């Protein structure tokens, strides 16, 4: 089963947030919250199709944390 890992990271040159999947970058989003929402929606669709799917966030200090995992966290997430 394929694993889809969506990374939300800050595009430092632009000061905006992007979602990265397999090296492909999304359009930029003005806030981290908006980029996370888009990533969770995409991960949910992949999970519903039978794939492992996860959203990871790289904060401004380069620390990576798991934000959402299909089958473990509620959809849509609170907040």
TrEMBL record:
Pfam families xrefs: DUF2188 (PF09954)
Protein name: DUF2188 domain-containing protein
Lineage of origin: Bacteria, Pseudomonadati, Pseudomonadota, Alphaproteobacteria, Hyphomicrobiales
InterPro entries, per the entry: DUF2188
């Amino acid at each position: 089963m394929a694993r889809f890992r969506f990374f939300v990271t800050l595009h430092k040159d632009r000061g905006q947030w992007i979602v990265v999947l397999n090296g492909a970058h999304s359009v930029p989003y003005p806030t981290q919250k908006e980029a996370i929402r888009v990533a969770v929606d995409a991960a949910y669709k992949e999970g519903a199709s039978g794939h492992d799917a996860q959203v990871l966030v790289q904060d401004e200090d380069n620390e990576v944390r798991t934000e959402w995992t299909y089958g473990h966290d509620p959809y849509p997430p609170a907040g």
